[in-house]
Amino acid sequence: MTLFILIACVGCLVLLITWAKINPFLAFLGVSILSGLWLGMPLENISKAVTKGIGDTLGSLAIVIVLGAMLGKLVAESGAAQRIAGVMQQVFGTRYLVWAMTFTGFAVGIPLYYNVGFVLLVPIIFSVAYRYNLPLVYIGLPMLASLSVMHGFLPPHPSPIALVMQFDADMATTFGYGMIIAIPAIVVAGPLFAQSLKRMPSATSVVDLCPDKHEDDLPGVLNSFASSLLPVIVIGVTTLLEKFWITSGPAQRMLSFLAEPNVAMSLTLVISTCTLGLYTGKKLSHIMAIYTDAVKDIAMILLIIGSAGILKQIFIDSGVSNDLATGLKSWPLPPLLLAWLVTAGLRLALGSATIAGLTAAGIISPLVQQTGIDPNLMVLAIGAGSLFCSHVNDTAFWLFKEYFGLTIQDTLRSWTLMESLVSVLGLLGVLCIDYLL
């Protein structure tokens, strides 16, 4: 009976979001309360679960996600991303332009959220394709594959960082494992897969794209790369120093403090405000306006993440999660594969990678405690599953189709297959690391 209620609740969530077109935040909230009632929870406990679920989830995430959005917006507005793209094209040359686009998406995708990165990089894709007379999909897909992998696998993107917090994983370790998995996934699903798309026609019309900034208005090369990658540098360096060099005393406590994501992101934003803002001639009021717009862009993401935490708390407080974990534990499947399958199924039904990953986390979380599986790998398994088979219920599918002027069939053959490759390769990478450990 408990399993039936759980399936019915998830099915109701899917229908509200995909068929009734209800806002995901409202859908999560409504289904969470309905689930509590259906599972026989006392009314006062449902109210407490709602408060605890959204509070615990956003309490540890809001600062990092907001600061990450601000950094990404500043990287875009300052021209740092355009500078990185230009440098990549110069380094790789015309013969290896596809690889240049791939590494550009990789570097820019670390601080930028997918939708922001897509809109920012599409003008670069169009410009390169036109300048060198190359097929649009062939040039663009590798860059977008990098963006997608960064979005699904690695902190500080919303879903991965939320999963890190939910599973009590180590952010630096998750990022390290994620990089090991992400690079081969990007190479195969990006440049190598793009070779099969050289003859794919693109009937795109002229799109009203933001014009490139003049070369003289762009920040310097070192400034662009360092400012964009600073969160990774701060967390990575402090974590390595703490583990292999300074292991005790005041210096160790300082390193632990700097390695905290909230602190690292705060320090990064202060430095980038100077390097990409004030030092390039921008007024402080203009920079603050950029940050305000960035918060508006991710406000709904924060609400969705918080509401997913409510559903997870309802499942935990009602005892459903423990019952389900006990049942799943008896299945003849590795926990990581099981997590990927659950997330992939939700991705097929819901469309949104973020919502699929967070919903799966609420179902799978007790399994991590009962099986003792590495929480860092569980984060990545769910992240990989959340990218599986993007199709007509995913906004990214339509964004790619319309910008690149493709038919539904060609979008399925390019975008959907690329996302599925990334997802499956990510799972294989997770299972390989788990085997080696």
UniProtKB/TrEMBL annotation:
Subcellular location: Cell membrane
Keyword Transport part of the UniProt annotation: yes
GO cellular component, one term: plasma membrane
Domain of life: Bacteria
Annotated transmembrane regions: 30-46, 58-76, 96-129, 136-154, 174-194, 221-241, 261-279, 299-316, 336-365, 377-400, 420-436
GO molecular function per UniProt: gluconate transmembrane transporter activity
Keywords per UniProt: Cell membrane, Membrane, Transmembrane, Transmembrane helix, Transport
Predominant place of localization: membrane
Membrane-topology annotation of the record: Multi-pass membrane protein
Sequence similarity: Belongs to the GntP permease family.
Entry protein name: GntP family permease
Organism expressing this protein natively: Dawidia soli
